[in-house]
UniProtKB/TrEMBL annotation:
<dbReference type="Pfam" id="PF00126">
    <property type="entry name" value="HTH_1"/>
</dbReference>
<dbReference type="InterPro" id="IPR036388">
    <property type="entry name" value="WH-like_DNA-bd_sf"/>
</dbReference>
<keyword id="KW-0238">DNA-binding</keyword>
<dbReference type="GO" id="GO:0032993">
    <property type="term" value="C:protein-DNA complex"/>
</dbReference>
<dbReference type="InterPro" id="IPR036390">
    <property type="entry name" value="WH_DNA-bd_sf"/>
</dbReference>
<feature type="domain" description="HTH lysR-type">
    <location>
        <begin position="2"/>
        <end position="62"/>
    </location>
</feature>
<dbReference type="GO" id="GO:0003677">
    <property type="term" value="F:DNA binding"/>
</dbReference>
<protein>
    <submittedName>
        <fullName>LysR substrate binding domain-containing protein</fullName>
    </submittedName>
</protein>
<comment type="similarity">
    <text>Belongs to the LysR transcriptional regulatory family.</text>
</comment>
<dbReference type="GO" id="GO:0003700">
    <property type="term" value="F:DNA-binding transcription factor activity"/>
</dbReference>
<dbReference type="InterPro" id="IPR000847">
    <property type="entry name" value="LysR_HTH_N"/>
</dbReference>
<keyword id="KW-0804">Transcription</keyword>
<dbReference type="InterPro" id="IPR005119">
    <property type="entry name" value="LysR_subst-bd"/>
</dbReference>
<dbReference type="Pfam" id="PF03466">
    <property type="entry name" value="LysR_substrate"/>
</dbReference>
<keyword id="KW-0805">Transcription regulation</keyword>
Length: 211
């Protein structure tokens, strides 16, 4: 018999990207998460995750796993609503789940939350923070309602809210100091430079530099 606890393990692992992060969120041990997923796969008679490739590769769902993950979300939602109705507290409050890129300035996030609370009184705001790829996954699986990101062309129905410069920090005697106030990403290929790893702008930078 499938246990709702194991469904919750599955959804948490997919939402947070790993069994370790899911365990931290659920305040249980990582081996308990792994054991629960193994029991769920045994009950289903098939693999939910593609475990081929390097051991440190992020967990990805199999095609059947993706379908079951969506069903698990629906089942857990029904269970939550049924429990609330039975307890005499039906879930009727308005709720917005906002997905935020983890590289966005915290000041901007605080400002957005204050603006939301001022204009949307009576609506509960849930904040989910993650990488751009994680935001895309959450949105495609309808885990978040709105995405706040500093990467353009994320979704077809996006709306531009602000622009921010990409700044190059150079020494006082660097040639760029005297040549121009604005440089292109391609200009940086002429000199060695330090680029932040795991940056959401990395694909754009590589494309502009012809890397």
């Amino acid at each position: 018999m499938i246990k709702t606890q194991h469904l919750r393990f599955l959804v948490s692992v997919v939402d947070y990207g790993s069994a370790t992060k899911a365990a931290e969120r659920l305040h249980i041990s990582q081996p308990s998460i792994s054991a629960g997923l193994k029991a769920l796969e045994d009950e289903l008679g098939g693999a939910l995750f593609d475990r081929s490739g390097p051991a440190n590769r992020p967990l990805t769902l199999t095609p059947k796993g993706q379908g079951f993950y969506r069903r698990a979300i629906e089942i857990l939602g029904i269970c939550e609503s049924a429990h609330a109705e039975f307890s005499g507290n039906p879930v009727q409050e308005k709720k917005l789940v906002l997905g935020v890129a983890d590289t966005i300035s915290k000041d901007l996030i605080v400002e957005a939350i204050r603006s939301f609370e001022s204009n949307e009184k009576g609506t509960k705001l849930n904040l989910w923070e993650g990488s751009v790829s994680r935001l895309e996954s959450w949105f495609s699986h309808k885990r978040v309602d709105v995405i706040l990101s500093n990467v353009g062309s994320l979704m077809p129905n996006e709306k531009l809210l602000w622009r921010e410069p990409l700044v190059a920090v150079v020494a006082p005697d660097h040639p760029y100091i005297s040549t121009a106030n604005v440089i292109s990403i391609r200009d940086l290929t002429e000199y060695p430079f330090i680029h932040r790893s795991n940056c959401e702008l990395d694909p754009l930078g590589r494309a502009r530099c012809g890397c």
